[in-house]
Amino acid sequence: MQDILGHLQRLGMSGYEAKAYVALVAAGRPVNGYEVAKRSGVPRSTVYETLGKLVARGAAFEVRGAADATDYRPLPPEALLDRMRREFDGSVDALRDALPAVAGAPEGHLIHNLKDGGALLDRAEDVVAGARRGLVLSVWPQEMARLDGPVRAAAGRGAEVSVMAFGDLGDLGGPRGGERIYEHRYSAPEAVLADLGYRLLVVVGDRREAVVGGFGGDGSAWGIYTADPAVALMAAEYVRQDIALQILAERVGGDELNRLFATDPGLLRLLGRR
């Protein structure tokens, strides 16, 4: 019940309106204000005002009851939710055009810290949802569990999706649509985790915004979001280079790649081994 009330409030109802509407739905028949107050916990002093607001928003209707009294019945839940969806989508579409028109020129590219794992995944999901042309991810199964649906949706709307997976994604790995998923085998995920000490998450949308962060084994998390295209490009290239290395290892073999890394002067210098 608390979940229902919370969702109705997030969609624009006040706490009293949500309680009164749920009471009307649960009654299964027209009821008067006194009974709504008794069923919902809305104070009798405000129940008729609350019902009036539901009627004004079209979520309830007045009907004539016994002795010409006024009873109330709800708009059926399916119809209410369809109406709310239409109104919400209409507002989003209007704001999509209107807000950029009044926005001032930014003084600099947005960048901010993400203080915990929830904020990090929320912002990562925002980047995935905003991607229209390209989406690049470096991700572990724990975080892909949250991002899988939005990633599939991005591929479904035509974004080119490339995923570097540290570990077997299982059901999260397929069947897929337009995504290209590469499992990191050249360095075992356990070795990467032991080396870094955390699970690195990189999400880049359209090479214009990025989330980079890490999840520690103790439940800690850190991260940043940036809309700086230069930083986003670097983050995307980091993942693409990792994917390229994985493809190269599969083509020439891990042993040959290890030999090159151990003997080539240029690679040794880049790796800081000489």
TrEMBL record:
Gene3D superfamilies in the cross-refs: Winged helix-like DNA-binding domain superfamily/Winged helix DNA-binding domain
Domain of life: Bacteria
InterPro entries, sorted: TrmB-like, Tscrpt_reg_TrmB_N, WH-like_DNA-bd_sf, WH_DNA-bd_sf
CDD domains reported in the protein's UniProt record: PLDc_like_TrmB_middle (cd09124)
Pfam family for this entry, one: TrmB
Domain Transcription regulator TrmB N-terminal: residue ranges: 8-78
Protein name as annotated: TrmB family transcriptional regulator
Source organism phylogeny: Bacteria, Bacillati, Actinomycetota, Actinomycetes, Streptosporangiales
